[in-house]
UniProtKB/TrEMBL annotation:
The chain crosses the membrane at residues 39-57, 64-82, 116-137, 144-165, 185-216. Pfam families: CobS. Its cofactor is Mg(2+). One of its GO terms (cellular component) is plasma membrane. One of its GO terms (biological process) is cobalamin biosynthetic process. This is Adenosylcobinamide-GDP ribazoletransferase. Joins adenosylcobinamide-GDP and alpha-ribazole to generate adenosylcobalamin (Ado-cobalamin). Also synthesizes adenosylcobalamin 5'-phosphate from adenosylcobinamide-GDP and alpha-ribazole 5'-phosphate. It catalyses: alpha-ribazole 5'-phosphate + adenosylcob(III)inamide-GDP = adenosylcob(III)alamin 5'-phosphate + GMP + H(+); alpha-ribazole + adenosylcob(III)inamide-GDP = adenosylcob(III)alamin + GMP + H(+). Its main location: membrane. It is found in: Cell membrane.
Length: 255
């Protein structure tokens, strides 16, 4: 029952698929091992929406790319709605803060500012467009496993940041996840990464695509670790932005 409770806590925190639950700071770290299953649920729900859209459009004489484009849009909208746009907000905040070229507390002030700036808007457009086009490509090729795995892959990348960097404030949301960067969770992260790569290979993704995914994911994680150390530690925005951009990489590199 303890595992079920932590899984439901993770679902309530990262999605709106279950009613909101009171989750304490210590419980957040205990929810971390369920990030991957939570991502699988989110990917499956969004993929179901895309499948229903394709089934609805199947009886209409539409040009070849159009059904896939509509289904890709349905997938993205479903993912954003079901996750309450949690990580998308982090992408915008990180882009605005990094684009300000400020240091110290001035960087943190921009990061915490709820207003959307130019760099945040551009980052959202790039990440949205990248995922949208990649989703359409996968749907055209019938590669459904990637659509299901992508959110789980993105969430799994958080363990690297939690393990290789320190939080800016342990009392903050990001700091409450700091305990999740344990050796046990890193071993689980590596195991799930290898299982994901094997599943993607068996589903028809090329070795070149998987190699590109691993390379660019390592570079992205390294960059976030560098930023965390340079700016005095990571926060919830660092974690969320890494998850969303990791999801985008999974979709794009496996085309």
């Amino acid at each position: 029952m303890r595992f079920v409770r932590h899984f439901l806590d993770a679902l309530s925190f990262f999605t709106c698929l279950v009613p909101a639950r009171m989750v304490s700071g210590s419980s957040l770290a205990q929810c971390a091992p369920f990030l991957f299953p939570c991502g699988l649920v989110l990917g499956s729900a969004a993929s179901l929406g895309a499948a229903l859209a394709l089934a609805f459009l199947d009886g209409h004489a539409l040009p070849c790319p159009l059904p896939a484009l509509v289904a890709a849009l349905v997938w993205l909208v479903a993912e954003i709605l079901l996750s309450r746009g949690l990580h998308w907000d982090a992408v915008a905040d990180m882009a605005d803060a990094l684009g300000s070229y400020r240091e110290g507390e001035a960087f943190r002030a921009v990061l915490k500012d709820s207003r959307l700036g130019t760099f945040g808007a551009l980052a959202l457009i790039v990440v949205f467009a990248g995922q949208f086009l990649a989703l359409a490509g996968h749907l055209t090729q019938g590669q459904w496993l990637v659509l299901i795995l992508a959110p789980a892959w993105g969430k799994n990348t958080a363990f690297w940041l939690l393990s290789l960097a320190q939080p800016y404030d342990r009392r903050s949301l990001g700091g409450k996840f700091a305990e999740a960067g344990s050796r046990q969770n890193m071993a689980l992260c590596l195991f799930l990464t290898l299982c994901s790569l094997l599943a993607l290979f068996c589903s028809g993704i090329s070795l070149t695509g998987l190699a590109m995914l691993c390379l660019f994911q390592a570079l992205l994680i390294g960059k976030f670790v560098f930023w965390s150390r340079h700016y005095g530690g990571y926060s919830g925005d660092f974690i969320g932005a890494l998850m969303e951009t990791g999801q985008c990489l999974c979709l794009v590199c496996t085309l």
